[in-house]
Amino acid sequence: QVQLVESGGGSVQSGDSLRLSCSASGFTFENYAIGWFRPAPGKEREGLVCITTSSKERDYDASVNGRFTLATDNAKNMASLQMSSLNSDDTAQYYCPARHSLVCNSPSPPYDFRGQGTQVTVSS
């Protein structure tokens, strides 16, 4: 059974940092691309970043490039999203999805499945 479990969300102040984690199980991690996305007004979702776990190539959306860093630990089947300089616009439910592919092609490619999400709330 494929599963992705996000954790690390919480309430922080504007300007703070936060690290989200995504634990994967039930599939061969190195054969997938992993990402993070959040809902966005007027859009199905806002894709933030995608990484190919085999090559470690990352594709960041301009809105988070330089503030958010995605890393993976293939030995632990885990992905993390280090977020800094958070502001109120970053308040959202954050989801970790996976795509059975060795390429991302964009920060928001089609994904095959995702986790339940973790809530991040940033107050000013």
Walk me through the structure.
The mean pLDDT is 95. The chain is globular and about 40 Å long. The chain has 124 residues and is an all-beta fold. The relative contact order is 0.32. The strands form 3 sheets. Strands 6-5-4-10-11 form a 5-stranded antiparallel β-sheet, with no helix packed on it. It has a 4-stranded antiparallel β-sheet with strand order 1-3-8-7, with no helix packed on it. It has no helices and 12 strands. It has strands at residues 3-7, 10-13, 18-25, 33-40, 43-52, 58-60, 68-73, 78-83, 92-94, 97-99, 113-114, 118-123.
Present the secondary structure layout.
Elements: E1 3-7, E2 10-13, E3 18-25, E4 33-40, E5 43-52, E6 58-60, E7 68-73, E8 78-83, E9 92-94, E10 97-99, E11 113-114, E12 118-123
Parallel strand pairs: 2-12
Antiparallel strand pairs: 1-3, 3-8, 4-5, 4-10, 5-6, 7-8, 9-12, 10-11
Structure characteristics:
mainly beta; 0% helix; globular; 5-stranded antiparallel sheet; 52% strand; 124 residues; 4-stranded antiparallel sheet
- Major sheet, described briefly? 5 strands, antiparallel
Using the alpha-carbon principal axes, give the shape: globular
Radius of gyration: 13 Å
Proportion of residues in extended strands: over 45%
- How many helix segments? 0
Q: How far is the first residue's CA from the last residue's CA?
A: 40 Å
Task: Offer a concise description of the structure.
The protein has 124 residues and is mainly β. The chain is 0% helix and 52% strand. It has no helices and twelve strands.
